[in-house]
């Protein structure tokens, strides 16, 4: 940055600077008279001084990088560096001239004098800082929402929208521990679409995907909000039923089996139902059983349902 003049010798008017809006201009002008006006070339970093100071853009524009890729544009009349002056920390290193710019620099001591001597300046600074805090809070909330969105994304299967294996590995052990701890039942249904290889071969992989989505919707629509549907593997799905006994879970599985039979995969209504069927294995958590052995029990029941002719429910 090169020195150009003092503020008093420059053509700029204090009335155009936001910090002095509605403030006593005469006394503020006198205090600012000897402050340096500097010129920064396009792209030049507005260097980090040993002493924190306030920078006011008189002409051109600055970009203030906040460190997470976001930038704020500072236009003529606007200022930056207020916080560094107030807390005594210098943080101007992210400040860069977007074009050739003329800047008014006010050292920290002088900012404090301006605050002491002008209620208007103090009020404007408070307003500015409260605006910045609001903006920072909003950004934080946006980032939290984005984080939640990605967390959800990593826990859901992209094709069906059901929970995925990562979710299951995280949650099932906890559900099992809670069930043991509270002595409340927990049931699990494993289901597998019947002859899905044949379905894919006959109708193509895209329609196979559609059949899987349809099966997932059958589960999503038929379950209570407290139940969970998971895509366990390729065409193997799982339903977790907290606080549900074996006989009740068997009833739920029967209902799902029936809804699957009635589900529409092909829009062409000339094709008779069922478009897909599934086989179901039901197991309930036994005393001392862990999640792996609960899954194995449901899987074994599912295998028996397949062996017995498919499109049916077997209970462990
Ligand atoms: N379209 C589609 N097919 C899948 C997907 N995941 C797994 N599959 C297919 O599912 C089929 C599973 O076949 P198998 O394990 O032999 O079982 P099946 O043909 O359903 O026979 P049964 O289970 O004994 O009734 C395979 O052909 C896989 O390619 C998927 O995401 N989309």
TrEMBL record:
Its EC number is 2.7.7.65. InterPro entries: cNMP-bd_dom_sf (IPR018490), Diguanylate_Cyclase (IPR050469), GGDEF_dom (IPR000160), Nucleotide_cyclase (IPR029787), Rev_trsase/Diguanyl_cyclase (IPR043128), RmlC-like_jellyroll (IPR014710). It comes from the Bacteria. SMART domains: GGDEF. Pfam families: GGDEF (PF00990). Residues 184-316 form the GGDEF domain. It catalyses: 2 GTP = 3',3'-c-di-GMP + 2 diphosphate. SUPFAM superfamilies: cAMP-binding domain-like, Nucleotide cyclase. This is diguanylate cyclase. It comes from Pseudoduganella flava. The lineage of its organism: Bacteria, Pseudomonadati, Pseudomonadota, Betaproteobacteria, Burkholderiales.
